[in-house]
Amino acid sequence: MLILGLASLLQVIFLPGFIIIWSLGITDGMLKSIILAFTLSMIVNHFIAITLTYAGCFNSTNLYILFLFEIIIVCWQTRYWLKMPFSQISKRLKSSLKPLTTETNLSLINCSVVVALAYFMFQLVANAGSVIDGWDPLFSWNRWAVDWYHGRFPSHIWHYPQLLPSNWSITYLFIGTDKIQFFATAIMPLFPLFSLLALFDLWKRKKEPA
User: For the chain, how far is it from start to end, CA to CA, in angstroms?
Assistant: First the structure.
């Protein structure tokens, strides 16, 4: 169950977006790549949910097949990295992270990014085993997510965007039940985290010489 839950998070927040940015050759900084991978993954997953629901085949089996296919693509795209010695990979990662650790940036990192990371980790631990609560999440968002989970388009959505419910439903389909909601709730702290990281990335780029 844990492995399937972690796989669902990998699908929801990383794999589809990573494939896109790697295919397009977007290498403008690690931080930007991570943020884009998160954003694009959720958008792609939403369209996957719509397409498969229209086709009447939005189910666990097809998501497992898609996930395996994506893993194969990622392994192919990163085959040169996989063959690279770990010491060389470490040097490249340090090189890409170096702009974030200059004296100019350290104060901002300490005041915002590190705090955001600590907040996310706290929320992740605090939400362990938790269920979705609150009026809107419980009676709207999660109800729509359950509809997606059962392979039907949600009703009475009042034009409310369905990106979040459709992505929640993917975590349910991976683990085979809508009763375990921890992996769905684990996504939520990422939104303020990546919003802050996006602002930091923009600030860093504005500070760099043209």
Answer: 49
